[in-house]
Write a sequence for this structure.
């Protein structure tokens, strides 16, 4: 499929290897609701979503898809789909409400029930420790100037995160198959502290680079704690939203723009985590913002703690050219050198281009650059303007085409030697899509947010068949 043609060729039979993991993914703040129940305290997203003008329609995650109260129903849905794995995230403020210190037994109980329910259903639990819901207490800088505060701009937060990882490993280490430290630290750092479209909504390039470093540090510290506490069979991983960057032309200027985005979008995480170093060109590009003296001796070695797999979240590629970005920009150091060009082809309801080649490109790049590191597509999917028709059906042929094309791209990467172990469809349920609130539907299960009624979309039935057959095609 090319970017100009969203209809995949559905006639070819593509089988995936035996043991390939077929999953769906969600995140705590996007589905759980029960924001003030059983001892949970606010996260930065509770605060941000309550700030006028930050989230479309003033939506919050207070109720979301009410998953906290509908756990059994949602596990039953997954059983119906036949997924082998379920990727969910744990809300830090539910289990360690103040970010550090006392553990909330009721919060832990919820995740115990979830994990036990999955295991009873034969579904492998894949837990993410951080999907952006930082306890507010760790972000707020108190008047007394106490040690807490500053969120990811402060290294203390990385140590608090490692403690929380230890709490979860002690509570569920015997039952969770894969532990992912962080989901998409790029978004947490650069959307949260750079252009401020995500919580906590700060717009400060230096803060975003500090946050990126402290997230790398937090990952490494937590990976070490997890290793020490988990059984040998448990896997430790990290999920990155790597950018499939393409230069608009072969001109040296456009190619340099692509290099800059690759540095601050991809290698800022890949190099510390897999090579224990910062990209030299990134340090050069950001010299006007920082000398990186907040990186202390030993931090990069800590970030490079060995992990068992790398998760990749992919939705669409980025096309860049020499120019300047809008202000405030999340692209620290590249703001005045790079402009983003619309990629050709059809678009999803997010206005993101549909282009499965970008996923293939990322997977074969990682095959070459990280030999020996198993890869997992931990998120892939699309938002469309779905609705239940009068007979109660939700027809979403564009999503089926999108998913088909991206699974075919994964298959092509496998055939070309990429060690891809699994695919997690984003998302199981329609949910709170961050700054877009409930206006964007990524689920393969439709949620009527007024009644919380769940309805399988056509894409859910299609995915169940794919799983049952072990691949695409009749
Ligand atoms: O909904 C998000 C998810 O939380 C992180 N990855 C991208 C998804 C779609 O925007």
């Amino acid at each position: 499929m090319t970017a100009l043609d969203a209809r995949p060729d559905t006639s070819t039979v593509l089988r995936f290897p035996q043991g390939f993991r077929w999953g769906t993914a969600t995140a705590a703040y996007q589905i759980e609701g029960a924001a003030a129940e059983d001892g949970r305290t606010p996260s930065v997203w509770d605060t941000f979503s309550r700030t006028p003008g930050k989230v479309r329609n003033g939506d919050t995650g207070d109720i979301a898809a009410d998953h906290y109260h509908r756990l059994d129903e949602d596990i039953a849905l997954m059983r119906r789909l036949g997924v082998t794995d379920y990727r969910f995230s744990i809300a830090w403020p539910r289990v360690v409400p103040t970010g550090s210190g006392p553990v909330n037994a009721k919060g832990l109980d919820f995740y115990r029930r979830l994990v036990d329910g999955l295991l009873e259903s034969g579904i492998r639990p894949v837990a993410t420790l951080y999907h952006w819901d930082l306890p507010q207490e760790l972000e707020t800088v108190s008047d007394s100037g106490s040690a807490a505060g500053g969120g990811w701009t402060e290294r203390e937060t990385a140590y608090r995160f490692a403690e929380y990882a230890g709490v979860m490993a002690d509570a569920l280490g015997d039952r969770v198959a894969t532990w992912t430290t962080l989901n998409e630290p790029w978004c947490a750092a650069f959307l949260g502290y750079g252009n401020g479209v995500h919580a906590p909504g700060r717009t400060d390039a230096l803060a975003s680079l500090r946050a990126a470093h402290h997230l790398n540090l937090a990952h490494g510290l937590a990976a070490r704690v997890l290793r020490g506490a988990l059984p040998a069979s448990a896997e430790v991983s990290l999920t990155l939203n790597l950018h499939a960057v393409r230069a608009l032309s072969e001109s040296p200027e456009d190619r340099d723009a692509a290099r800059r985005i690759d540095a601050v979008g991809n290698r800022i995480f890949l190099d510390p985590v897999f090579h224990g170093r910062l990209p030299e060109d990134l340090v050069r590009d950001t010299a006007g913002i920082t000398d990186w003296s907040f990186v202390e001796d030993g931090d990069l070695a800590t970030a490079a703690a060995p992990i068992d797999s790398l998760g990749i979240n992919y939705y669409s590629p980025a096309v860049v050219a020499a120019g300047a970005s809008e202000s405030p920009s999340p692209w620290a150091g590249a703001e005045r050198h790079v402009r983003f060009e619309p990629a050709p082809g059809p678009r999803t309801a997010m206005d993101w281009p549909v282009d499965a080649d970008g996923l293939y490109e990322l997977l074969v790049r990682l095959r070459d650059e990280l030999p020996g590191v198993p890869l997992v597509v931990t998120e892939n999917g699309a938002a469309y303007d779905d609705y239940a028709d009068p007979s109660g059906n939700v027809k979403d042929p564009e999503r089926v085409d999108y998913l088909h094309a991206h699974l075919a791209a994964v298959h092509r990467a496998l055939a070309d030697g990429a060690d891809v172990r699994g695919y997690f469809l984003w998302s199981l349920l329609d949910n709170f899509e961050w700054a877009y609130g409930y206006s964007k539907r990524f689920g393969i299960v439709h949620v009527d947010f007024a009644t919380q009624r769940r309805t399988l979309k056509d894409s859910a039935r299609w995915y169940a068949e794919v799983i049952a057959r072990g691949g695409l095609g009749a």
Notes: The chain has one domain: 19-396+412-458. Residues 205-229 form the longest helix (25 residues). The mean pLDDT is 96.
